[in-house]
Amino acid sequence: HKTKHNTPVIMLNLDVQPGSGLGFFRLGMPISEAIGLIEEHNTDISRVEIQYHQSEPLERDITLNLVGEGILLSFDPFSQRLRLIEVHNLARVLLSYEHTVFSGGGMEPTFAQVYNTFGPSYPGDYDHENNRYVLQYPGLSFTFSIPAEFRHLYTKDTNELPMEMPNGVSPLASCIYLYAGGRLRNPTLPPLGEGSLYYQPVLARLGQGVLFASSSTRAAVSSTAVAGGISSSDSSGSSGSGSSSSSSGSSG
């Protein structure tokens, strides 16, 4: 657990890119790249916490919590690539879509505003346990909290939210999620870019060496070297008997 403190200067203005990312945060990016971007924008980002589960490090996501901006970045524990972006305090950042601000700076992310900005979508789902309505677009979801006085109007089978509540007020979005592919309940990682060496498959061939599959580069193991020693490397892609595979998290 680490915390960084800085004094915020301006409100972040971030472009929402469904299925791709939020501002300079791109879905699929390694956590090291995200940390580097945060360092570059350290005058705009007030406080960051790195969180992970100590007893189950490979079962729970690693998260970067931008506390002052109300943004949570969740990274796959194995590949350490960004798989989910959550904005849970919409009042602390400016959010835009195709150069049009729809939240922040005096603009409230009402259901009507979201509908006008992103267009129509399929009916959403009412989350009865959390008393919220979930509206989904490809790679993008909005949640709307239902005021206590109107919750009796909704059931777990409710799949539509009106533009206005019975008191004439349009529901406000309480959270935004960005993810690649699928739905919010099961976000997937986007494919790595062409030529990327990050987390590339590695084949270990007994008596021959290690083959980096993406680049067809082989590191040969000397027969006289100690275990794990590497004597030379070449670009041979020849195969041999007795191989196993793993994956490398190296970025280069």
Number of helices: 2
Give the total of beta strands.
19
Strand order in the largest sheet: 1-5-6-7-8-14-13-12-11
* SSE ordering: EEEEHEEEEEEHEEEEEEEEE
Backbone CA Rg:
23 Å
Structural class designation: mainly beta
The rounded distance between the terminal residues' Cα atoms is 27 Å
What form results from the Cα inertia axes? elongated
- The poorly predicted ranges are 1-9, 224-248
Overall helicity: under 10%
How much of the residues is beta strand, in percent?
Answer: 25-35%
- Major beta sheet, specifics? 9 strands, antiparallel
**Which whole number gives the mean pLDDT?**
79
Short description:
With 252 residues, the protein is mostly beta strands.
General description of the model:
This protein has 252 residues and is mainly beta. It is 7% helix and 34% strand. It contains two helices and 19 strands. The strands form three sheets. Strands 1-5-6-7-8-14-13-12-11 form a nine-stranded antiparallel beta sheet, with helices on one face. A five-stranded mixed beta sheet has the order 4-3-2-9-10, covered by helices on one side. A five-stranded antiparallel beta sheet has the order 18-17-16-15-19, with no helix packed on it. A hairpin with a 2-residue loop joins β12 and β13. It is elongated and about 80 Å long. The two termini are 27 Å apart. The N terminus is likely disordered.
